[in-house]
Structure formats: C-alpha cells, structure tokens
Write a structure and sequence with these properties.
Layout (H helix, E strand, L loop, with lengths): L1 E10 L5 H13 L4 E5 L2 E3 L23 E3 L4 H9 L3 E6 L7 H4 L5 H14 L7 E3 L7 H8 L4 E3 L13 H10 L4 E3 L2 E4 L12 H14 L2 E7 L11 H16 L3 E4 L3 H4 L6
Parallel strand pairs: 1-2, 1-10, 1-11, 2-5, 5-6, 6-7, 7-9
Antiparallel strand pairs: 3-4, 8-9
Helix pairs in contact: 1-8
Length: 271
C-alpha cells in the first residue's frame, strides 16, 4: 500500500467557502481527507518577496483591519466543521514573509501558542501538525515548534537551519536518503515540492505525481487553493487537473489517502 497526504496551504479568514468546496467536493464525497494548512490570524498586508500582495488575499474584499482571526468568518468555520474530512493544520500565525525564519527566538513560544489558541477558539481540535510559511524555519523556531507539535510538515531540512543537537539524527537521515525522519517525539516530514501547481505544466505533472506516489511509501502532495482562482475567477483547466489527480488517488486500490494525524494513531510506513 502507498499512502498519500494532500496538504492545501493558506486557508484563512478571507477564503471563500465556495472556492474550497469547488476544489474538494469530489474528494469529500468520496471520503478522501484534505489537510488544510490554516493561517490562524492572517495579515491583510502580507506580501511576497517582491512586495506584491500574497495570492491568498485575492478575496479579502475591502477589509480594513490589519489582521483577521479565522473565527471572524463564521461561514467558513461552520463549513470546515461540518465537513469533517478536512483536517486543520497550524500554518504560522499571520503568514508574513518568512515569518518563522525571521521570528525573534524569544517571541516564538507565544507566537506559536497564540496561533493554536485562535484555532481552538474557532472550534477546532488542537492542531497536531505545524506548517511554517514558505516551509522556512530558523533552528530555534524549529525547535520551539517541535516541542509543541508531534508532526512538522516542510519542504526539506538544511543542516544550517537545524538545532545543533539534531545534527546526528539529520546525518543518519541523509545517509539513508529518506525524506521523513524523527527527532524525539516529533515526526519531520518532507514533500517533493508543489507538484499540484499552476506554475507547472499540467501535461507532465500527473506523470511526476504518479512517479512519486508509486515509488514511496508516503508522499505529501502540496497545493494552494488560491492558485486555482488567482485571476479572481476559476482556472477551469487547473481545477480539472486537480480533479483528475483526486480521481486517480481515489480509484487506485494500491493507494490510500490519509490525514496527517493518521500517522500518530496507525502503523503507517514512512520511508
């Protein structure tokens, strides 16, 4: 059996319910879980490296506040709670550029805790998985997250960004050439880049996805809901490609789509 986790990043208080449902209704109706890396208190002025506004703010609709907590959108919260195939992951706090790489070490514990409290206050279970904006940490913020979460999902891990005490475990991971590893009680998971992306060729991406899924015990597929609506309207070709991928995952008897939290409660091979 091959296992797949679908991780969709950047759900926040300005995300329209209609966007998520358009993307994932086929998956939900077939019983496939979708893991949403959710911003607890989104910054409405969050920018990318070039200074342009983040794509996930496309639908902020004139809000004048500096930040919006997830609970300020009751329609979205109700939708996510009613559809229990969604699993909520903690995605930073405000999702400012490189938030958890630039965060001052002394501020990390309260920043992490505030994000968790906001998600719980909105009515969701305490998140078990943490995703940093842009998948970037400093060594000390990564340690602070690992002390509080049993699962960290990231793109990759670099020696210079790790606590020194983790170096032996990292060297063993590199020697075995495996994507997923463990430090203490925390699983540190990697993904093969954003294979479900509007910036890739749809004609070649499915074969690349199949290659990864068929060759690994566990694959994390990352996408971003707002890319499917990046011009303010649905990208029908990209949505069709997502649905084609979901159909493949749902119908192959050798593949099972799971939640991140299933890794804590079931004996699932990682590597």
């Amino acid at each position: 059996m091959r296992y797949v986790i679908i991780r969709d990043d950047d759900t926040n208080a300005s995300t329209p319910v209609e966007c998520l449902d358009r993307l994932y209704r086929p998956a939900l109706d077939r019983g496939l879980p979708i893991n949403l890396a959710t911003i607890p208190e989104v910054s409405l002025s969050a920018c990318q490296e070039d200074g342009s506004l983040e794509g996930f703010l496309k639908f902020r609709n004139g809000h004048a506040e500096n930040v919006l907590p997830l609970g300020s959108n009751p329609k979205l919260v109700e939708y996510l709670r009613e559809n229990d195939r969604y699993e909520i992951l903690q995605h930073g706090l405000h999702h400012e550029y490189l938030e958890f790489e630039r965060l001052a070490d002394r501020d990390a514990p309260q920043t992490i805790q505030r994000g968790t409290e906001l998600l719980v206050a909105a009515g969701f279970p305490r998140p078990q998985t943490f995703v940093a904006p842009y998948d970037k940490f400093s060594g000390l913020t990564l340690r602070a997250v690992a002390e509080r979460f049993p699962i960290v999902s990231s793109g990759w891990y670099e020696l210079r960004r790790l606590p020194h005490s983790w170096w032996p475990a990292y060297a063993w991971k590199k020697a075995r050439r495996v994507p997923h590893w463990r430090v203490g009680n925390t699983l540190l998971l990697s993904h093969p880049g954003c294979l479900l992306s509007c910036f890739r060729s749809y004609s070649t991406s499915l074969n690349l996805i199949l290659q990864h899924v068929k060759s690994k015990p566990l694959t994390i597929l990352v996408t971003h809901w707002w890319e499917y609506f990046r011009h303010g309207s649905p990208d029908e070709d990209f949505i069709a490609f997502l649905h084609q991928t979901l159909d493949f995952l749902a119908t192959d008897p050798e593949i099972k789509v799971i939640r991140f939290s299933d890794l804590l409660s079931r004996q699932i091979p990682l590597n």
